[in-house]
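Researcher: Good morning. I'm working through a list of sequences from a screen, and I'd like to move beyond sequence-only analysis. For each chain I'm collecting a predicted structure so we can compare shapes side by side. This is the next one on the list. No need for commentary yet; just the structure.
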Amino acid sequence: MVVRPPSHGTEPMSNSPKKVLVRRFTADVLPGYLPQAAFAGNSTIGLLDLSGRIISLPINDIKTICYVRDFNLADPVNPERLTRRAFLARPRSEGLWLRLTFRSGDLLEGLAPTDRSLLDALAEDDGLFLAPPDTRSNTQRVYVPRTAIAELQILAVITAPSRRPPRPERPSKEDLQDELFRLPIDPASRPN
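Model: Good morning. Structure tokens for this chain:
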């Protein structure tokens, strides 16, 4: 497996292998370990499987790579536990709210970062990293290769709410009443 150093003088992310489940278009799932970034090279990835061997997988065959908490190998159908594939409401975290349509016709929504790491992932890893709709599930992060995407829609740009400028202090009722009695009165305006 080729591990490239981070480019452009950015702070390096941890390149220690993380637990992943690689879902292929043939519907089989391969458990293993991959670094968090810069793992795609020459249109292949080198997956470190559970027995310690490196398996070379063509990126064209990969539908998603899910970074997971647990492998859940007892569940052969959905070990990623990625049950919710779309947001129920507007996401609360910052990012680009994307809807992906895969070559197979499946849909997946997620949040992509709005910083330079989005472009770095497209350039170095030939795909997108997304935060899934349900971050409490087993899947913490999803990588989708560009070759797996048939259509990409940007639904919204989610930003942090801007802070309102502080309101000017309002004088208290006592201050207003004292000021009222100190106002000069024009002698011509006095009643008879």
